[in-house]
């Protein structure tokens, strides 16, 4: 076996020929002079052989995945050819995208590493600076997702997420059936979501959407009702529970401000106990909460109302749920707790959208699960400064297209 053959086998370089190699000890670089298999000269569009016009004057370099601590580079001078159909073109480069600076194999490793770990760690493994990695990642993902279309959307979820240390917001649209993200846009207002409906979906696709779930923001509700009149809008259970918990917390805060000394001490550490679902409560926490009955009547009243509301989600028949909601709202109004009354106001405004939950059982739970993954990605990177970088990572981890699988199979080795 010749040394060339050995290197080719070792680096798993099928379909290309290594004409010479050189080790640069100082930079720990291995430079491989390569050639396409069978002398190349293929048209990149139709893969037919063309006639050589000239060899490009400049040497091009592609980065491959590092091996045993050596950074590996391919060097080659591509040739210009004349194809009968496509005219004068640069010959097909089998190991990389025609104007890329890295090989397909490098792109695959980069995508898989970035799915699994922080970009900083991935950049160490791949021997490139982090800024270069994120540029390259953006280029690769943009190329792969170019021309990708949303298909078969039936249930959508819309939610917002913060990035850039919580200063900025992005709107995320989910496919709830397939549990993936289909779109990300800057901002959280009506104009943002309008961009999605206007540019990403055809009129037919909009009419195919049967279910939609979102939080209580007027912008999202308005957009869904305008663009998809056939869809049944369900307000997300998670957000309603959150709003109710918020109201209970508001009561607690008011009491905290009023109380002083020993009374204040008794209210300490109550916050998370109040939020707890009844099924998760231990005997001890129940005792503490029941003690409130004597300790602080107002918080106790708010908590009892919140606990009673849990029943609502168990109903199977919409009419029964409606009846329950009527009874509950009356009780809440009588409680003379201002935050609770505000909550009832929102509830009454969205009554039919909340009742539709009982019939559909559609929740944004899928979206919340995906949101959790997105948050992990965000925290791993210690936040993102720009939306494109964040969008790349969202599409890479929970997008509707399996991005690493778009790299040709023979290059999927790490
Ligand atoms: Zn051609």
Q: What does this 3D model show about the protein?
A:
This protein has 414 residues and is α/β, with parallel strands linked by helices. It is built from 17 helices and twelve strands. The chain has helices at residues 3-10, 104-116, 119-125, 130-145, 190-200, 203-208, 218-227, 237-258, 262-266, 271-275, 283-295, 297-309, 318-334, 338-349, 351-360, 365-380, 387-398, and strands at 16-24, 29-36, 51-55, 60-67, 70-76, 79-83, 87-90, 155-163, 168-175, 180-186, 211-214, 232-235. The strands form three sheets. Strands 10-9-8-11-12 form a five-stranded mixed beta sheet, with helices on both faces. The longest helix has 22 residues, at 237-258. The relative contact order is 0.10. Bound molecules: zinc ion. Zinc ion binds at residues 43, 45-46, 48, 83, 85-86.
Number of helices: 17
- Judged by helices, strands and strand pairing, the structural class is alpha/beta
User: What is the string of helix and strand elements?
Assistant: HEEEEEEEHHHEEEHHEHEHHHHHHHHHH
Principal-axes geometry comes out as elongated
Put the structure in a nutshell:
The protein has 414 residues and is α/β, with parallel strands linked by helices. It is 47% helix and 19% strand.
Helices, strands, pairings?
Layout: H1 3-10, E1 16-24, E2 29-36, E3 51-55, E4 60-67, E5 70-76, E6 79-83, E7 87-90, H2 104-116, H3 119-125, H4 130-145, E8 155-163, E9 168-175, E10 180-186, H5 190-200, H6 203-208, E11 211-214, H7 218-227, E12 232-235, H8 237-258, H9 262-266, H10 271-275, H11 283-295, H12 297-309, H13 318-334, H14 338-349, H15 351-360, H16 365-380, H17 387-398
Parallel strand pairs: 2-5, 8-11, 11-12
Antiparallel strand pairs: 1-2, 3-6, 4-5, 6-7, 8-9, 9-10
Helix pairs in contact: 4-17, 5-7, 8-12, 8-14, 11-12, 12-13, 16-17
Bound molecules: zinc ion.
């Amino acid at each position: 076996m010749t040394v060339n053959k050995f290197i080719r086998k070792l680096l798993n370089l099928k379909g290309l020929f290594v004409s010479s190699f050189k080790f640069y000890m100082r930079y720990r670089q291995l430079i491989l002079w390569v050639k396409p298999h069978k002398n190349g000269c293929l048209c990149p569009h139709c893969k037919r052989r063309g006639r050589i016009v000239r060899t490009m004057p400049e040497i091009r370099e592609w980065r491959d995945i590092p091996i045993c601590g050596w950074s590996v580079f391919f060097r080659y001078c591509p040739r210009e050819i004349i194809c009968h159909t496509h005219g004068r073109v640069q010959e097909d480069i089998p190991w990389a995208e025609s104007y890329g600076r890295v090989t397909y194999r490098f792109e695959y490793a980069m995508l898989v590493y970035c799915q699994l770990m922080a970009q900083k760690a991935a950049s160490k493994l791949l021997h490139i600076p982090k800024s270069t990695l994120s540029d390259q990642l953006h280029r690769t993902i943009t190329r792969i997702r170019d021309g990708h279309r949303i298909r078969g959307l039936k249930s959508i979820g819309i939610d917002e997420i913060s990035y850039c240390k919580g200063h900025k917001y992005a709107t995320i649209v989910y496919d709830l059936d397939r549990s993936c993200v289909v779109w990300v846009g800057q901002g959280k207002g009506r104009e943002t979501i309008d961009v999605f409906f206007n540019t990403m979906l055809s009129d037919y696709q909009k009419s195919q959407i049967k279910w939609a779930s979102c939080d209580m923001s007027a912008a999202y509700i308005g957009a869904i009702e305008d663009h998809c009149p056939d869809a049944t809008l369900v307000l997300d259970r998670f957000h309603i529970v959150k709003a109710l918990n918020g109201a209970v917390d508001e009561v607690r805060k008011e009491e905290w401000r009023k109380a002083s000394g020993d009374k204040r001490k008794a209210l300490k550490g109550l916050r998370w106990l109040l939020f707890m679902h009844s099924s998760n409560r231990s005997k001890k926490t129940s005792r503490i909460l029941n003690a409130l009955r004597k300790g602080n009547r107002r918080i106790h009243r708010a908590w009892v109302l919140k606990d009673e509301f849990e029943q609502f989600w168990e109903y199977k028949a919409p009419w029964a749920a409606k009846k329950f909601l009527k009874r509950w709202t009356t009780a809440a109004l009588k409680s003379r707790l201002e935050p609770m009354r505000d909550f009832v106001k929102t509830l009454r405004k969205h009554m039919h959208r909340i009742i539709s939950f009982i019939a559909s059982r559609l929740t944004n739970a899928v979206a919340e699960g995906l949101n959790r993954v997105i948050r992990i990605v965000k925290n791993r990177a210690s936040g993102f400064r720009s939306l494109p970088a964040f969008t790349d990572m969202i599409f890479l981890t929970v997008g509707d297209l399996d991005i690493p699988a778009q790299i040709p199979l023979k290059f999927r080795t790490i």
